[in-house]
Amino acid sequence: MHKLLVLYPEPADPDHFRDYYVTNHLPLVRQMPGLLAWRYSFDVAATEGEAPYFAVFEAEFADAAAMSASRASPQGRQVAADVVNYATGGAVVIHYPVQDGIV
């Protein structure tokens, strides 16, 4: 499995961010090909001090190639182009292969 993680710093207008993200951006995300699962939160907290991020999003893909193909698709390009409409604080995007742990 391969994960895409988006970390959002505090936006200029948090209410606009929340509303636009849920109403407009996430419906675009749902259309991305190869997307296995996704989740987000506006309740980001730090274990100590203040959290450096306002919101977080994560998406799961079968592998890095599936993620790359999804991001390069017309739907993926539309999702990327939409970020400027709500994320005035910018966005940090990272991705990584997931290693299972043993319990």
Throw out a few tags for this protein:
globular; 103 residues; EthD_dom; 4 strands; EthD family reductase; alpha+beta; four-stranded antiparallel sheet; Alpha-Beta Plaits; 24% strand
Could you describe the 3D structure shown?
A four-stranded antiparallel beta sheet has the order 2-3-1-4. α2 (64-72) crosses α3 (74-82). 33% of the residues lie in helices and 24% in strands. The two termini are 18 Å apart. It is built from three helices and four strands, in the order βαββααβ. The protein has helices spanning 14-29, 64-72, 74-82; strands at residues 2-8, 37-41, 55-61, 92-97. The protein is an alpha+beta fold and 103 residues long.
Produce a short descriptive summary.
It comes from Paractinoplanes rhizophilus. The chain is 33% helix and 24% strand. With 103 residues, it is α+β, with helices and mostly antiparallel strands.
- Cα-atom radius of gyration: 14 Å
| Total beta strand runs | 4
Uncertain runs are none
Mean pLDDT: 96
Order of helices and strands: EHEEHHE
The CATH topology name reads: Alpha-Beta Plaits
Secondary-structure blueprint:
Layout: E1 2-8, H1 14-29, E2 37-41, E3 55-61, H2 64-72, H3 74-82, E4 92-97
Antiparallel strand pairs: 1-3, 1-4, 2-3
Helix pairs in contact: 2-3
